[in-house]
Amino acid sequence: MTAYPHDELGRLIAALPPAPAGWVTAAQELPAARATIEGIVTRAVADAAYRERVLADLESALAEAGVEPTPPILEELRARFRSG
Amino acid sequence: MLARVAAGSDAELVARCRAGDAAAWNELVERFSRYVYAICTQGFRLPEHDAEDIFQDVFTRVYTHLDGLRDDDAFRPWLAQLTRRACIDHLRAGARESPVEDPEPPDLDDTLSKLDEALTVHEAMATMPDNCRDILDRFFARDESYRTIGEALDLPAGTIASRISRCLDKLKARLEETGAANRREDG
């Protein structure tokens, strides 16, 4: 059997190096981030002053809520405010 | 393309994610993070800061569209297609002033095929005992030296090479047990 000589196996293992740890963690936190977005939107609907603060600085609002403000999360929050 | 080493396991993981199992989502991201990262950086040769945006975008799309996946066993090609499309969209958006007809690198299909094969090998590695999985990943994927590996795993540096060789034998046997190697020769 020569289908997987050692050097070829080594090349295939090396072809998938780990993604940066911070990226993986941010992606793993997506479900919690979406729950936080729901909380921010719900609060903003009920509290006009909070809504203004959030709209003025989405990144800070997310960071205060403990969510990494990655571009997709920011875009989702913007979209929620646009639609609501 | 190689057959899957752990057929069905992706489908089980996807089903658990769909049911709201947080641990399953963590596992899914962990299992496929290297694949998505490699498609962005090797397949499309994107710089890290662009790759990071796409990486997050892809997993956001996965999370939001998982309910729309018709065949859970087809998760892997679906993910590859999502990532490929996200990279193309990104390149097209960045080339608005001087549009390019085809933003895909000419050797993209070959690269993606290689990455798919690499993922199959990594999945086989994931079924191996921790000591083998760890030493192979550290040496090949993380490019660590014998000395670093020896210190991290509390092993004499002089034994690392032979341990790697034995673990590669075990990995090869595991791939052959599943028939992946035979299909590779045929295909």
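qc> The two ends of chain B are 7 Å apart (CA to CA).
qc> done
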